[in-house]
Design a protein that fits this description.
Elements (H helix, E strand, L loop, with lengths): L4 E4 L7 H15 L10 H6 L3 E8 L2 E9 L5 E9 L8 H15 L4 E6 L4 H9 L3 E11 L2 E9 L3
Organism: Rhododendron simsii
Protein name: N-acetyltransferase domain-containing protein
GO molecular function: acyltransferase activity, transferring groups other than amino-acyl groups
Length: 156
């Protein structure tokens, strides 16, 4: 993975705008328009009990994970993305692992996420870190695209 640091983005950080701009570009490139948070990132990050971690490689944002914890009972991984040139180098795993650790410090009992069943690398990563399939949600992304709801019980 090279020299990489997983960093928690803080609202008052000097790099705030640069990091958000890079993430918005990544969002637009990776996700279909109706799934992208590119236009609402600032609002998403202002929400109470939400966080964003990013993988910094020499000043470049290699990937990011957004998560929220509405209560100590549960948390959600809302987005996880890695730039194409940085994939299969451990960035996604490092980001997800750090988000799980952050949730643990908040005494979260269960972490959930949704994933398109056709995104095999993502499914493999989630299973590797202990997530289990809970249910198939028909039409989750669009009428013709479903999602697996997956969960990780943090205490295990």
């Amino acid at each position: 993975m090279g020299s990489c640091a997983v960093v928690e983005l803080q609202r008052n950080a000097p790099k705030w705008s640069k990091v958000i701009d890079e993430i918005v570009r990544m969002e637009k490139k990776i996700f279909p328009k109706h799934e992208s948070l590119a236009r609402s990132f600032d609002e998403e990050l202002k929400r109470r009990n939400s966080g964003l971690l990013y993988s910094d490689v020499g000043g470049d944002v290699a990937g990011y994970v957004m998560y929220s914890w509405p209560s100590s009972l549960c948390a959600s991984i809302t987005k996880l993305a890695v730039k194409e040139g940085y994939r299969r180098q451990g960035h996604g795993e490092a980001l997800l692992d750090e988000a799980i650790k952050k949730c643990r410090t908040r005494s979260v009992q269960r972490i959930s996420l949704h994933v398109d069943p056709s995104r095999t690398p993502a499914m493999t990563l989630y299973k590797k870190l202990g997530f289990r399939i809970d249910d198939l949600i028909e039409g989750y992304y669009s009428p013709d695209r479903s999602a697996y709801r997956m969960y990780l019980d943090v205490d295990e």
